Amino acid sequence: MYKPGLKGVTAVETSLSQINGEQGMLLYRNTPIQEIIKKYSFEETAYYLLYGTIPAKEKLIIFESNLKIYRKLPIHIMRILDSLPKELSMMDVLRTAVSSVTLEHDSYLKNANQLIAIMPTIIAYRYRKIKNQPIINPDDNLNHVNNFIYMLKGNINTTHASMLETYLIMTMEHGLNASTFSARVTISTQSDLVSAITSAIGTMKGPLHGGAPSGVIRLLDEINTEDRIIEVIHNKLKNKERIMGFGHRVYKTVDPRAEALKNKINELDELPEWIKLAIKTEKETIKLLNKHKPNQRLYTNVEYYAAAIMKSLDIDPELFTAIFSSSRVIGWCAHAIEQINNNTIFRPTAKYITK
Ligand code: ACO
Questions:
Q1: Which PROSITE patterns does the record cross-reference, listed alphabetically (predicted)?
Q2: At 304, which helix (H) or strand (E)?
């Protein structure tokens, strides 16, 4: 039976996450996401998704030190990054640089460590280079998230680091989304992990998937003041435009990741004006979406509050999708490994129609 966009089609079995779109529930393996962000670090959560257990102290230390080893950029990747045209978007740069990673092991899990570790360095190196800022080398005394902020900005604000860590943990894994599916399709041909992750990055780039947070910033910049919310959203809906940061293929209620990010933002002592505008816009937009699309059940998705967090951290919107990719690479790798361990090549059929 033909299902456009494979809507509702079950294409794989996975132990990596459970999503209940009607109830707004997300579990990594069998642990609710709310518990994960309260109890575990970025590294512990990544380990849990990749290896299947929360690591004991010794295992965690080995994993953390692997990430530290692979953070450093090999010379050939630096050269590639330096030679790419300035106008290339960060996602194009990330896709190109990741595709040139030389895997050092036969083990998929070790290859995954290598790819997870190197992505933040690629992003920070390239960003500082095109902004003519001195390059900051990775610091072995810092954990994965703090090191990323340090390489990008040169200093670490602990509140900001904690918000970014929550965002990165929350976006590591999300079932068979488009980019994860790409990774699984590629590895199902018995290709390698670098090729699988390169496919996934190309898929993530699109505005209907990972490209939404920059769209959210543009939307809120366009609204600018509370009194313009209704007018701007109404006009967009009248022109049949999509409102970025709203709607989800799976969630038909509030996206639990958006909820958790909003809670994290509310821990701030004082909410920046921009965030107050985002909260008010969410409320009004949901009302308008209900009116214009009464059967669709459209709410904020994770990208909406991701944009708010990135804006609070003063991170350039050009980096949003690449940073999202630097956490989702964990889900991509875990899925690719799950696929290759019980593989059937993907080869659906196409229905011929006369045109
Ligand atoms: N604004 C306005 N209308 C919307 C929106 C939206 N954000 N999302 C869905 N709709 C409407 C569509 O216009 C369509 O209406 P119609 O039937 O009257 O034509 C209906 O809802 C169904 O749309 P589909 O695209 O079939 O729904 P689907 O579940 O496949 O879409 C998607 C999911 C692509 C995320 C969609 O909601 C969207 O485009 N949202 C905006 C982009 C966005 O925020 N993307 C980030 C997603 S989260 C992530 O990728 C991590």
A1: CITRATE_SYNTHASE
A2: helix 302-312
